[in-house]
Design goal:
The structure is a single chain. The chain starts with a helix and ends with a strand. It has a 6-stranded antiparallel β-sheet with strand order 1-2-5-4-3-6. It has a 4-stranded antiparallel β-sheet with strand order 7-10-16-11. Strands 14-13-12-15 form a 4-stranded mixed β-sheet. It has helices at 2-24, 108-117, 128-144, 148-161, 168-181, 185-198, 211-226, 275-285, 307-321, 330-338, and strands at residues 31-35, 38-41, 54-62, 68-81, 86-92, 104-107, 234-237, 240-244, 259-263, 266-269, 325-326, 403-409, 432-435, 452-454, 463-464, 468-470. It folds into 3 domains: 27-110, Thrombin, subunit H (Beta Barrel), CATH 2.40.10; 139-226, Serine Threonine Protein Phosphatase 5, Tetratricopeptide repeat (Alpha Horseshoe), CATH 1.25.40; 240-470, Alpha-Beta Complex (paralog of FGE (formylglycine-generating enzyme)), CATH 3.90.1580.10. A hairpin with a 5-residue loop joins strand 3 (54-62) and strand 4 (68-81). With 471 residues, the protein is an alpha+beta fold. The longest helix has 23 residues, at 2-24. It is globular and about 75 Å long.
Length: 471
């Protein structure tokens, strides 16, 4: 008996050593194949890798002094594991070199362990903003010395570790300049696009910049100044997985089973489409403008639009802007509404109140109104009226105000067979999905997991829509 126990201990210890060795030798962990945004890594279940493991990919850079540094190219999440290999999905790409074969891989547990060993910076930094400003200055110094890759690392760290709203323009401008110095023109343009999204009238002193960079700068600026713009503001939703469905076990059967869904990165409109925006569409296409029932137009959400009207608006805006704009899928809508922490409502788990959402409150005439709540409006409210109710990504009015059309056909059993990656809804059906509840409803439909549907030809005073586009 003791012999068997001793043998088992030796085997277990040997396996521990193997796993420890694999994860401690970063040079042995590499990307061996790349297909789109899916990579294959030479570590599998025998090495302790499991589904859901996360990590990073790097290229190795040798500085002028001979010192090696690692330059990040992406984050990944493992989606399938075999004995000696695993496949992973790139969940967020930094605007750096692409992920390619032979790049170094580290798993997240390694990063966690290394962070534990890092000395505290509290003695040297008053707060995250101070660190961010320091990184920007380091980046500028590296750029002046011709160390462009190192400068990019500094600016990316300033942007990702310690976002500084009043420094975003400076970061994007310097990132663009550094990429230009490395002849990475596409990356330079990407960062100028980010700059002009923040400030389309940004000006610079042309004497301080290379002539070729000035030409790119002027080209992108001109595109922004002349672009078709009806005031749609976009919020980026990062790629990755979330749990979709009623994790509180309080909803309807069509909200279950709760299931994991992976979505590629995308953008969703910060607000519901307004009358002002929809009226521009009507004027350009000769359509009749929808009724506002005398409640006001302007920045109130458009109402009396059926699913086909919403799709026609998306098609028109796509043609005007050259972008692929569409209604959000049901999965895209739910992730944008509740994030990845499985919250009940966009703002969290706290009950609806007059500061968070517009629903059937004391101002309405319904029997089901909540007499304890005053949200300030009897009918629809101007979009963005409830900043305390925005989602974890900063998307407004994902609960209440108006129901929102989604792209999907509705099927009460769809969660039983929906794919785990980028689900698009059933291939056919009769009603279309709507989400979010409205000014007309009580609190129940305000839950982010709540599913509802209407026939595509329905239009009424409680239904509108918002927009989505792929990254």
């Amino acid at each position: 008996m003791k012999k068997h126990i001793r043998s088992a201990v030796i085997i277990s210890f040997s396996l521990f050593l193997i796993v420890s060795l694999i994860f401690s030798q970063k040079k042995d962990l590499r990307v061996v194949d790349v297909s789109g945004d899916t990579i294959t890594i030479n570590a599998g279940s025998v090495h302790g890798v499991k589904d859901g493991f996360t990590g990073r990919t790097f290229i190795k850079i040798t500085q002028s002094g001979g010192q090696n540094i690692r330059f990040p190219t992406g984050l990944f999440e493992v989606i399938s594991v075999s004995q000696k290999k695993c496949q992973a999905k790139i969940t967020r790409m930094s605007h750096t070199d692409p992920v390619e074969e032979n790049q170094i891989v580290t798993f997240e547990q390694e990063l966690i362990e290394s962070k534990k060993k890092e000395p505290s910076r509290s003695k040297y930094m008053n707060n995250g903003q101070s660190e961010g400003k320091s990184l920007i200055e380091q980046g500028k110094e590296n750029y002046k010395k011709g160390r462009y890759r190192e400068a990019i690392i500094n600016f990316l760290e300033a942007q990702q570790k310690n976002p500084i709203k009043d420094k975003e323009e400076e970061i994007f401008l310097n990132l663009s300049l550094s990429y230009y110095a490395l002849n990475k023109i596409i990356r330079a343009e990407e960062n100028l696009n980010k700059l002009f999204r923040i400030n389309s009238s940004k000006t610079i002193n042309e004497i301080d910049y290379p002539l070729g960079f000035i030409e790119i700068y002027k080209k992108i600026k001109s595109e922004y100044e002349n672009r078709f713009d009806i005031g749609i503001e976009w919020v980026e939703i990062p790629s990755g997985s979330f749990q979709m469905g009623d994790n509180f076990n309080e909803g309807n059967s069509d909200e279950r089973p709760v299931h994991s869904v992976y979505l590629d990165a995308y953008y969703i409109s910060k607000y519901e489409v307004t009358f002002d925006q929809y009226d521009t569409f009507c004027e350009e296409t000769g359509r009749n403008k929808p009724d506002d029932r005398g409640w006001g137009r302007g920045d109130r959400p458009v109402i009396y639009v059926d699913w086909n009207d919403a799709k026609d608006f998306c098609d028109w805006l796509s043609q005007k802007t050259g972008e692929d704009i569409h209604l959000p899928t049901e999965a895209q809508w739910e992730k944008a509404a509740r994030g990845t922490d499985q919250r009940r409502y966009p703002w969290g788990n706290g009950e609806p109140n007059g500061n968070r959402v517009n629903f059937a409150d004391i101002n309405t005439d319904f029997k089901w109104k909540d007499k304890s709540v005053n949200d300030g409006y009897k009918y629809t409210a101007p979009v963005g009226s409830y900043p305390a109710g925005k989602s974890p990504y900063g998307v407004h009015d994902m609960a209440g105000n108006v129901w929102e059309w989604c792209q999907d056909w509705y099927d009460s059993d769809y969660y039983d067979y929906s794919p785990s990656h980028n689900p698009q809804g059933p291939s056919s059906g009769s009603p279309r999905v709507t989400r979010g509840g409205s000014w007309y409803n009580n609190a129940s439909p305000l839950r982010s997991a709540y599913r509802y549907s209407f026939t595509p030809s329905l239009s009424n005073s409680s239904v509108g829509f918002r927009l989505c586009k792929e990254k």
